[in-house]
Amino acid sequence: MATASLHPGYTGPVRDRIENFHGAQLVYVHWEGHLNFCSAVTLPLPASTPFGALTAEILPSIYGIDPDWADVDLGSARWMLDGADWKPDGARPIGDQGVGHKSLIRFWTSPTGQA
Amino acid sequence: MSRPVSITLQSSQDGIAIADAIMADNPEATRNAFPAMIKIDAPGRLTIKGDTVSELLGREWDPQEIHMSVVSLSGSVDEDDGSFTLFWR
Amino acid sequence: MVARKLSLKQKYGHFTRGMDWEPSYQAKEDIFPFASYEGIKIHDWDAWEDPFKLTMDAYWKFQAEKERKLYAVIDSMAQNNGQLGITDARYLNAVKLFIQGVTPLEYQAHRHFAHLARHLPGAGLRVAAQMQSIDELRHCQTQIHTISHYNKFFDGIHDFAHMHDRLWYLSVPKSFFDDATSAGPFEFLTAISFSFEYVLTNLLFVPFMSGAAYNGDMATVTFGFSAQSDESRHMTLGLEAIRFILEQDEANVPIVQRWIDKWFWRGYRLLSLVGMMMDYMLPKKVMSWAEAWESYYEEAGGALFADLARYGIREPKYADVAKAEKGHLTHQAWTIFYNYTHAAAIHTWDVDDQHLAWLREKYPETFEQIYQPRYLKWREQAAEGKRFYNNGLPQLCQVCQIPMVFTEVGDPDTISFRVSEHEGDKYHTCSDGCRDIFDHEPVKYAQAWLPVHQIFQGNCGGATLPEVLDWYHINQGADNMDYAGSPEEAQWDKWMEGRRPPLAVAAE
Q1: H helical segments located in chain B
Q2: Which of C166, C181, C359, C476 has the largest count of CB atoms under 10 Å?
Q3: Would you say residue A114 lies in a domain?
Q4: What is the pLDDT of residues B32-56, one digit of tens each?
Q5: Which residues make beta-bridge pairs with B37?
Q6: Is residue A17, in this structure, part of any structural domain at all?
Q7: C5 interface with B at CB cutoff 8 Å
Q8: Residue C426: CB atoms within 10 Å
């Protein structure tokens, strides 16, 4: 829908275009059921980042301080990417697995894998 | 049942006198005290008369001086020479 | 021969509409270029009823008197070390939130009402806008003067204007007003004069000013009352403006309704910070956010919208969501600030047992089940020397810019994720309310300056947190971090030493 404007053809700079992130794209990640982490986190990651780097290094660096994290087995976690069920491959880059600029990844680590 | 109008005044010297005047001139008004404030509600309409306030304060009081004492109000406003009225259209 | 005195209404008429004129050699559309682009139709500007008959001579007289009274109190407070009278130094974090978040908005309002004072075609409205512009500047100034006294002793106040333009949580109020001031005059009147200064005003005023009164902050109470006396003129402008616009043409109704929906929601989201303040930062509490919402919105607002139904206006969309969220909103907001207090210019702290009891009493359906366990866990971690701070940066809503902490109605474990696509890019929002706003004018919100994204673009002083905090002008170790262990706490405890009874000596 059109933005009301004084002159026709109003437009303005999109500040979060992928080009502005120096080779990275933004990815949002949320550990479901752990709202002591108030919201999803925003991560600047190159599309070439292997998914395994996320699980081995990046997510632990954020969630490791939670006492529950010690019992977490990401191998059996349930994942969603941009609203659809997702089975990520640790060896492949996230960019090759459908993770685009400003994609949202949600994961569940409860025993039942339920939402 | 008329929709209530209301005015909230500071509990200052002037504010208390205005509140007393409102209660004297508006028989259906009700008055409640809050920390540092006085809230007066009335069904449908409320009038503040300059003469009544002047009498109670012991000095000439112009209804426009309400600006010094009002905290909040509810209703449409009508300002005239001798009075200040709240009402609903 | 006795000089005849003009009546109030006559005098007012001469000084306002009497000074207006019909242009004879320029087209009205050229003189008032903002008057019609929003699609609002006004057929007769003279039909505007000026409720207050305030002329400029009376205005100066009353406002000068207010200033004299206020500055006498500010001087007295400074001379008498009034800051010692507050209940506890934790209270000051409410004042910091105010000077960082609200005071700069007064300045924005001042600028934009000056713009309206020029660009509204009706003389009566122009006069009211002119007075409001000067009022808002006065509010900004009096707040700065009042709070400058606290700046001598407390942290986080020293560079509020710089911080307002940069800090992640301050982009919430900043973007709220930027949205309004980049809109046209009629949307601005609906957004600010009506929705903010009439419908929602008590939800800003009561928490801060009553909070100040209950917590010994005489200076803030005084500037609060000084400003409130102007607010009744502002409120009246808002109510009468909305009526005027709706009465002028039926075609205006759906446009105004959409603005009422949008600005109710934006105002409500902004007020989550105020709700958090009233539930968490006031050592002596006034009332809970839930109680304030019930009283000042559900009851008062209910009556208002029943009245506006005659114009075809209904209650704002998603008012039911606000009602459903009232048991959760402030605890979710506190969680944000507890998570990120290392990156903020205010303190947070672990909630003590007395406070937990109050929260359980005020929120019987939500607090003990959902939020208390979280706070107890945090308290435990802090006691072990592992006070929790979130290592990551939050996901922000594209519209309200608050970290996306709000949960689905009826499902407090699940974040309310919403997303839109615009020209190949995704835009995340926190709620149906914010998503509707984005979807209606995506070109506008796609331009948002989101603090977290700007940090990752390298625009905020560097790649590390200390560099960003420097860029924010945060005095690290003083403005930020938990209240426990802060320089402010040490200072406060020292001041209060003399006031406490001596500790009982243990029996040998």
Answers
A1: 13-25, 50-57
A2: C359
A3: no
A4: 998 889 999 999 999 999 999 999 9
A5: B10, B34
A6: no
A7: no
A8: 18
- Residue C103 contacts by C-beta under 8 Å, 6 or more apart in sequence? C140, C143, C144, C147, C160
Mean pLDDT, rounded, for C347-356 = 98
C305 touches chain B (CB under 8 A): no
Question: What's the residue count for chain B?
Answer: 89
Q: Say how many domains are in chain C.
A: 1
In sequence order, what are the residues at sequence separation of 6 or more whose Cβ sits closer than 8 angstroms to the Cβ of residue C84? Answer: C495
- Structure ipTM: 0.96
CA C252 from chain center: how many Å?
28
Structural domain count, chain A: 1
Instruction: State if pTM tops 0.90.
Output: yes
Contact between residue C195 and residue C264 where contact means Cβ atoms under 8 Å apart? yes
Q: What is the pLDDT of residues C383-440, one digit of tens each?
A: 999 999 999 999 999 999 999 999 999 999 999 999 999 999 999 999 999 999 999 9
**What residue numbers bound the domain in which A69 lies?**
23-108
Q: Does C442 touch chain B (CB under 8 A)?
A: no
Nearest CA in chain B to C302: B3
Phi-psi region of C216 (alpha: psi -120 to 50; beta: other; left: phi over 0): left
The domain of C445 spans 54-487
DSSP C455-469: HHTT-SS-SSHHHHH
CATH of the domain at A32: 3.10.20.560
Q: Is residue A4 part of a domain?
A: no
Q: Which residues, other chains included, contact C24 with Cβ-Cβ below 8 Å and sequence gap of 6+?
A: none
Q: What is the mean pLDDT of residues C83-105?
A: 97
Strand partners, A80: A85, A106
Neighbors of chain B by Cβ distance (3+ pairs < 8 Å): C
Contact criterion met (CB below 8 Å) for C400 and C437: no
Is the model's pLDDT at C107 over the cut of 80?
Answer: yes
In degrees, rounded to 5, the angle at the alpha carbon of residue C99 between the alpha carbons of residues C301 and C294 is: 20
d(CA C274, CA C288): 11
Determine the pLDDT at residue C382.
Answer: 97
Asked, for residue C429, whether it belongs to a domain, the answer is: yes
Dist. CA C8–CA B83, nearest whole Å: 10
Q: Contact, C215 vs C89, CB < 8 A?
A: no
The tokens describing C80, both together, are 């008498």
At residue A112, does pLDDT exceed 50? Answer: no
**Interface of chain B toward chain C, CB-CB under 8 angstroms:** 3, 10, 35-36, 64-65, 67-74, 76-81, 88-89
Number of structural domains, chain B? 1
Residues 6+ apart with CB under 8 A from A101: A18, A25, A26, C425, C426
CB-based contacts of A67, cutoff 8 Å, min separation 6: none
Describe the crossing of helices C432-440 and C252-276 by its angle, rounded to 10 degrees.
Answer: 140
Write out pLDDT tens, residues C43-52: 999 888 888 9
Q: Output DSSP code: residue C316.
A: P
Q: Cβ of C51 and B64 within 8 Å?
A: no
| Structural domain includes residue C501 | no
Q: Is residue C375 part of a domain?
A: yes
Q: Are C114 and C80 in contact (CB under 8 A)?
A: no
User: Domain for residue C18, yes or no?
Assistant: no
Calculate the CA C282 to chain-centre distance.
17
Which CATH number belongs to the domain containing residue B67 in this structure? 3.90.56.10
Q: Tell me which residue of C114, C135, C112 sits closest to C52, measured CA to CA.
A: C135
